[in-house]
Write a structure and sequence with these properties.
The complex is a heterodimer. By secondary structure, chain A is mostly helical. Helices cover about 75% and strands about 0% of the residues of chain A. Chain A contains 10 helices and no strands. Chain B has one domain. Chain B has a two-stranded antiparallel ribbon with strand order 1-2. The chains are: A mainly alpha, B mainly alpha. Chains A and B meet through α2, α4, α7 and α9 of A and α2, α4 and α10 of B.
Chain lengths: ~200, ~210
């Protein structure tokens, strides 16, 4: 598959939130206003891109040559925890204002399914190093797009009369469901029609 | 005393149900709830990992330094998930294929880390084990309810495990030929979850009014 094909696949066709349900927790928790949604999206995109590359190197450089494939889950989650810690330190050193804006969302990225998910998908799909990087970045961008759209919807919902039992989380899920209905237009035939497969 | 142990077991099943009340572990809930058999398999996997990780974390609670407790918990959980993956791959290959990547993603299921942080590192081994079993069963129950709704409406069947000559699929007349397909798709999962959550909020508020 071409690089643009991978990009379109993970941003639209297999959008991590609306189709694969990876990263639903921060999607519901952090989408209350658009500035924190953008911060979360950027941080996740950065971490998915970097961990995709590092996990690929760990798997093909360390685990596969020694037949240790079964240690995949443990080593990947350690890589992710370490990368998130590193990203946290680098951001704190070079851009204290961004660090302050992201706040507690940074350490929470470790337990975001999307990060471990894309690392495992990269290995299962047999991508090479560059393809893994593109897939990781695209998954993060798809997450960012969905969470920013959702935060805008939620800001509007604040001003709309909603029945008491639907207030808060239930109406968020239903809005996300309607968004997912719209995203069903992007199915795999999109890739064929664009000639990207 | 015995009564309080029983409470640790039962609270997770309904009163503090991880899915409907605390809203943890949403990712696998929505993704795996397309078939009842997948939901039961995933639920049992979570019971297995949650109980064992709760026991171990409770045993090690005095040994693990506070500052690195989260990484330590994740390593303990990841080890049990790897054991579960190997067991399922060996003995239940069809379920292993159906759950796919979501089996590995049990590692980052917030229910397990959440219970480790909120319960197991403060309580005794027995209470932690009971809490793990109860929370795991509550998770299974929530997951199965969603899967039941989605499978019955979305494809008109109830898939259980095949026994002997029976293929394990209950077909509901009328719905099999004309199911509401969207409920089985990804959008349906979010809609069903939203409606169920609204239903539970409504029931809670009614209970509050009666008091």
């Amino acid at each position: 598959m071409s690089y643009i094909g991978i990009l379109v696949t993970y941003i639209f066709v297999n959008n991590f939130i609306l189709v694969k349900f990876m990263g639903i927790c921060p999607f519901i928790g952090v989408s209350k206003n658009s500035s924190s949604a953008i911060g979360m999206g950027v941080a996740v995109t950065f971490v998915t891109s970097v961990t995709s590359v590092v996990c690929w190197m760990v798997y093909h450089g360390l685990l596969a040559p020694f037949g240790l494939e079964y240690l995949r889950t443990i080593s990947f989650i350690l890589v992710i925890a370490a990368m998130v810690q590193l990203v946290e330190m680098v951001i704190r050193k070079f851009s204290p204002s961004l660090y302050k804006a992201l706040g507690i969302y940074l350490p929470l990225i470790t337990t975001n399914c999307a990060v471990l998910g894309i690392a495992i998908i990269n290995i299962d799909s047999g991508y090479n190093l560059l393809e893994s990087f593109v897939a990781g970045a695209a998954a993060g961008l798809g997450f960012t797009m969905a969470i920013i759209l959702m935060s805008n919807i939620r800001e509007k919902l604040e001003l709309t009369p909603v029945r008491k039992s639907f207030k808060g989380v239930p109406i968020t899920f239903i809005s996300a469901g309607i968004m997912a209905l719209a995203f069903m237009a992007f199915d795999s035939s999109l890739l064929t029609n664009l000639g990207l497969v | 005393m015995k009564n309080s142990h029983l409470k640790e077991l039962t609270k997770g099943i309904w009163k503090e149900n991880p899915i409907f009340v605390i809203m943890l572990g949403m990712c696998p809930t929505l993704a795996v709830s397309t078939q009842v058999s997948n939901a039961l398999g995933m639920g049992l996997g979570v019971v297995f990992v949650l109980t064992l990780s709760n026991i171990f974390i409770s045993l090690l609670k005095k040994v693990i330094p506070d500052s690195i407790r989260i990484p330590s918990y994740i390593v303990i959980i990841a080890s049990f998930v790897t054991i579960l993956e190997m067991l399922m791959h060996a003995y239940m290959p069809s379920l292993y294929d159906a759950l796919g990547i979501y089996l590995s993603l049990i590692v980052v299921n917030c229910v397990i880390l959440g219970r480790a942080e909120a319960f197991a590192n403060k309580n005794s081994v027995l209470d932690s084990a009971l809490d793990g079993i109860g929370m795991g069963l509550g998770f299974t129950l929530g997951l199965t309810i969603i899967a039941l709704i989605r499978e019955v409406l979305g494809s008109g069947t109830i898939t259980l495990f095949a026994i002997g000559s029976w293929d394990g699929v209950i077909r509901i007349p009328g719905l099999v030929s004309t199911p509401i397909r969207v409920v089985g798709m990804s959008a349906g999962a979010l809609l069903v979850m939203g409606l169920l959550k609204a239903f539970f909020t409504w029931k809670e508020s009614k209970k509050g009014e009666e008091k």
